[in-house]
Design brief:
Length: about 850
Amino acid sequence: MAPDTTIPAVVLSVMGLLLVAAATRALSRRSGVPFPIALVLVGMGLSWLGAVDLGFLQPMADLRIPPEVVFYVFLPTLVFEAAFNLDVRDLRENMGPVLTLAIPGLVLSSLVTGWILHAAAPLVGLELGWAMSLLLGSILSATDAVGLIELFRQIGAPKRLTMLVEGESLFNDATAIVLSRILLGVVLAGGATGVSFETVALAVAEFALIFAGGLAVGWGAAVLVGLLLGRVEGNAFIEISLTTVLAYLAYLVAEETLGVSGVIAALAAGLLIGGWGKAKISPSVAGYLGHHWSYLAAVANSLVFLMVGLRVEVGALVAILPILGCAIAAMLLSRALSIFVLVPLAGRLPGSDPVNPRYQVVMFWGGMRGGVALAIALALPPIPGRDTLVVPLVMGVVLFTLLVQGLTMERVVKWLELHVPPLSDRIARMEGLIAAKRRTLEQIPELQAGGLFSPRIAESVRQRCSASLEDMREALERMRDRELDIQEERRLLHLRCFAEEKILYYEMFSRGHLSERSFRNLTHSIELQTEAIRHEARLPEFTLHPPTGERLENVLHRVLDDVPGLRGLAEVLRAGRTARDYEVAWARSRGSLHVLSTLDEIAVSEAARPATMDEVRACYQYWHESARARLDQTAEQFPEFVASTQERLADRLVLHAERAAIEEKARAGIIPLGVAESMLAEMAEELRRLRASQVSKLRIAPEELLRKVPFFEGLPHEEFQQVAQRLRRRTAPAGEAIVRQGDTGDSLYLVARGVVRVSRQDGGLNRDLNTLMAGDFFGEMALLHGGRRTATCRAVTPCALYELRREDLEEVGEAHPAITEALRAADRKRRAEQRVPLGPAEPAVLD
């Protein structure tokens, strides 16, 4: 921005560029030219028109966005929006391959590109030090996957692959920004002296520090904002403002106050709010919030690409053409190494699937450079060669990827024969068109009866629709006869059933019967099944309860148990998971029953064979029985919780009926609009209160348990209450390992509700030792003697337990010796049963 530029001129120029961007978007859709490419071309045109002195275009052509605006406004917007809209669950399941491609891939690309530029510079009459070469390499390694992701969605690529590309691009960009910042510091601090081992070691240490610091700042800020969002209901202004403040404040605090990575802070904040925080955002606001961030990111991207076009100087590009050719070759070579070496390696990681070589080719050629690389280059401070080499070089590479790679992507996809959608998608499209034509035919008599059409016009429309409908049916039949085999038939029937399930879950969520998190768990499960059936013709082994996810939760619970003051939080999380498991099982039972009741109708529409129908019916019957078993387990162990859940469901149904009646009366004018709105607002608040489960019903008073345990039967009331006060409540969801063989422990557990399986690993074989139920206890050996656990105790059903720690027992035992004696007797009995002698260093009694 020129010093004499006035604020009104800047505002006018920005508004003009936004208007140009909107017009370019419309033209790009009509012409088929990708939007970023169209923006660059339009920007170049504006620059040329401004050069011929068209007065009304001159302010836009002369506009220069300061580096500070790019760095502090555009970058936080682009990074936070990308992280916020990412499917965090899918990202978590693919985190290993994503990070493998993002961090090692970017470092490899930066090194290869920097080395080639450093070696090629003297050949074209330039001198580039190692620091400057690596800085250019890091900037040119920041990829823009927007176009590639859109292409993958159009050709029906597996969702896991789309997530791999999207996650790699996000972390790649963040890493590139951090690495370029470090290398910029090296350039400013003494790049002329060369890069020594000490410089590299310090750079690595600094990278780790500012990366970890940015994560901590973003995570902490997002937790705070998430807690605030949880206290707001249905207020779009507050909720959108909080997320906007979060993105920029986390960035600024990290970057300016603490000196760590603001980009990583914005990334961490966006991921946490986009995952855990979405459950805190009001459903009525979620849509507005998504549009808000999508628009801000679109504005930032549009202005950046327009500025590229406006700043392109053909003369400057021609002047650096030799080194530009080297940079393009280096970029392509480094991208090829990253894709064709690291992608196969990432496919070998646990939980990963190999990537089809044809998709690898698309990932290689689709690795374009865009907004982030340009933003880094434009945000550089005045360094030698910035305006004459760095910015023109980055712009030249970006233009090559947009104009050459971007405009040839469609040909590459066709050459690889990836442009034909899967049969299931083509049949679904044809069935949708047929359903639309049927609806049109059904409405023609109604429109004719209303006097809107003459009989001649109505008959003409009917004949055209009938002929078109017949043609579509014939085309569908030909498609089925030519391509539909038993495997495709099974795939289609499963996909139709999954669609029915998903519709039901959305209806249950919209009526308040499912919480946000349970609904997301169920839809994620359906999406995993859909992806596996569509692309692999098989059902996934786990969807709702993957072992990796449960292991991570169990690790988190154990960590919180060991942190003073956070044991209560661990218990809240365990109880919440048990309640959520019940809610999901109830919905899955409803969904399976719904599909079973409509399966015959679905099978008729898909012309499925009886054997295929029976196979799909068996799957849903199994899922229904599994869900019912979970429901029955919870009902048996926690009848109060189940009764409360059913009462709240009945209350919600009543409220929905009352709300429908009030809306009908309001539309008829019987109830004044203001009165109706007030009543509906009160009902909405009541529905929100009834949406959550009463986790407190999972808790059982210690007295109820202790009266059943022989240890404490003879205690007087006062002493009994003192013991009860020292018991620590704990909830264990089904499948959780309460104690693990080999772990160190000193606690006794009393089973209040549920079933616990005791097992031991011997010689690689897992052997069940015992099954414990309400009133039983375990862990007395560790309580009395300390040391390592000799067996694993795992919750078979949802369990309610109480824990007595060694330090608490010592305190109680001093006042009540009878308790110590009872435990000593249990110790002798258990050792006699298992024939385990006392070790030489083990005390026989609790001292």
